[in-house]
Specification:
The complex is a heterodimer of chains A (about 525) and B (about 375). Chain A is of the alpha+beta class and about 525 residues long. Chain A is about 55% helix and about 20% strand. The chains are: A alpha+beta (about 525), B alpha+beta (about 375).
Chain lengths: ~525, ~375
Amino acid sequence: MDRNLKWRAALVLAAVIASLIYVYPSLTSSLPTFWKKALPEESIQLGLDLKGGMHLILEVQTEKAVESAIERTIDEIKYSLQKARVPVNSVTQVEGQQIGLVLARPEDLPKLNKILDEDFRYLVTKGTSEDAGRLNVSLGMNPKEAVRIKELAAAQALETIRNRIDQFGVSEPDIRPQGEDRIVIQLPGVKDPKRAVALIGKTARLEFKLVDEANSPEVALRDGPPPGTEILYHVQTDKETGRTTKTPYLLRKRALLTGEYVTDARVTIDQQFNEPYVNLNLDAKGSTLFERITEAHVKERLAIVLDNNVYSAPVIQEKISGGRARITGSFTMDEARDLAIVLRAGALPAPVKVLEERTVGPSLGRDSIQQGLNSIIVGLLLVLVFMAVYYRMSGVIADVALCLNVLLIMAALAAFGATLTLPGIAGIILTIGMSVDANVLIFERIREEVRLGKTPRAAVDGGFSKAILTILDANVTTLIAALVLFQFGTGPIRGFAVTLSVGIVASLFTAIFVSRLIFDYLLVKVKMKAVSV
Amino acid sequence: MELIKPGTHINFAGVRRYAYGFSLLLILVTVISLITHGGPNYGVDFAGGILIQMKFNRPTTAQAIRDGLKGLNMQHSSIQRFGAQEHNEFLIRVQQEEQDYEGLAQKVQTTLEQTFGKGALEVRRVEMVGPKVGQDLRQKALFAIFYAILFIVIYISGRFELKWLMSIILALALMAAVYLASMMGAGVTWLIILALLVTLVVCFIFQLKFALGAIVALIHDVTITLGVFSLLNLEISLTIVAALLTIVGYSLNDTIIVFDRIRENMRKSRKEPLDVTINSSINETLSRTILTSGTTMVVVLCLLFLGGPVISDFALAMAVGILVGTYSSIYVASPILLIWPPQGAPARSGRAKPGGRQGKKKS
């Protein structure tokens, strides 16, 4: 019994010391150097609802990526058919993901099929129909190819967004894919959620398009834009009043230069007007392209379009070599910086949609922590006092077990790197109330045994053995509920499930093992005469 | 110190008709409330929409805010005070099908700043859930409830009846029924109701008395908690669903303790009529029941009053759940054991009549 006692005590002591070691980093802001070498230094992770920050779920619209691919394919088909001298009336995009092709001469079908087999393996012929001497051919994307494009788009979007967030400068961002086309982003402590969302969600498709000087935007607005052109707007928001003005521009549809040629983008302050603007560097190919464009269209206006918004349309003064361009537009410093970030990180392969956004401001987070801690402290004190009063000495034993319980929970959180959320704090509080149960069961049994006239030793033994099965039993159901919540829950609820589960396990340990140990110690070493319960 | 003196003998089983009546009344109130309110009050988690929590630096009213939002055509949104009066915090909730929620919180802030002045308000929290995610979360919550029920039913029937074979059969029956129903395209809500019904019927037919008692108590507790929320028109959010599942676990906790004692006493005195055994068992465990519920209640009340408004709905759910859970372990779960006529023993006259037409509690 003696040896048994000794190593049980050693075990509990080891648990206590380990717990203290794990919890210590959360209590101080600076750890001594010797600590950092060998001992754990992770403090307890706080959830977004306690730390403040933003949680976002984005959906990459991979369908649009497929549609863009179809768009590009149409251009390529037209080119190939031209080269092969197959006359074709039209090649159009039908309902986003299909191509409608009209052959002028139905007998060209084998030639078309040859071209399709060689260069466009990923297209499948959906059907053909003759109509007034012409052949309508309907083409679609091979499903496997479509899947490949979607997966690629999702992966690229993830990388680009990760890139952007890295440059934005948030400490410890968490960016993960979810399912096929969703991205979960957590930005703890983000100061300006609005900027962050704008930065993340921007498709950032940069295009340089020529302004159609031959026709006027007003006429085009009335009668519809002439073929090969489109109307895009320059949107200006007055900073004071918030009113927006939209100026229409008539542009040639074909983008002469796109953002993929941009290697770098920097914010510079214009000395003359003291305004920030963004300086672009183009790669070799881009530089050459840009030189050719500016050479061929001197004195014409080249519009700089971002996500179908015209930023500016300066007049090309002369041929520009060296691959430098600048984007101006009455930016604030923040706006310029963000624009540079998205241009550097690259465009999103498909637009993203915000499915879910939860933001907690830091002040609310602080308040929640404060209030949560208050509840724990007051609740704990009340229970401690009550147990001591009601069960006397045994109550004090239960109190010791209870304090150890809370310590174990905190240590487990730190050790597993689990996140503490506000419902998690509620879970700790619940555990305080429920862990008392185990001790109550034991003590009530001991009381019964004492009433039946048993000796202290026998009473304690009897109490424990009769109660244990019931204790295990009863806690299992709450554990089941906690585990289900962990499986299906997200964020804050997971935090709750974790603290509840850990709390239950810890309370089983402390009630069965630790309380027993203390009782045994009192019986054996102190030779307790009567059980104070 | 002892709250309950040993030898206390309250006739719980005897008053069970009144208890049933009371429970039925509460459940009826719940059903009426749910019907009047058109179902549970789903928060943004399940219904989608955007919730903005704002703190003003001086006292104001919901009406003033409403007026301030006219510029955005949002004066019909739900605006409620949040937390204590002196905090000047309000919740604005917008939920419209075609609404584009992106950047809405920012627009609301800018518009209100025009009325209240720049820096007069602080956005403390924003929760925006698009309709797709809302639906996802609904599914998840329902599945969580379903699996929890499944595992708990299996555990109860196995543990209590010690007829593990029975419990496996029950589990298989459940899974078969649910599978068939889902093949026919039933939604998860119906699957849950179906699972519960199948369980109740199986337990009744096979005389799994303890399991039946426990499950009926469960359904009773969750229903009444939902009823309270419906009456007070409080929102059902993910956290509340978590609270409900915890209540399920906790209430069973209670019930198991009483049942264990009943079975122990049944073994000890086989000749004793069941209602007497039940009574003495409950009385014996009364001390423990009141104490545990009491201490848990105390800490939950701490959370309710000190924990702040964000967690107070959760605390309220827990408080109601604990209260009703304790009540149901004593007055609902145990007396259900008396539904079946006792085997062999002649019917005894006395305050407690076994068998009868009590009927079952169904949600």
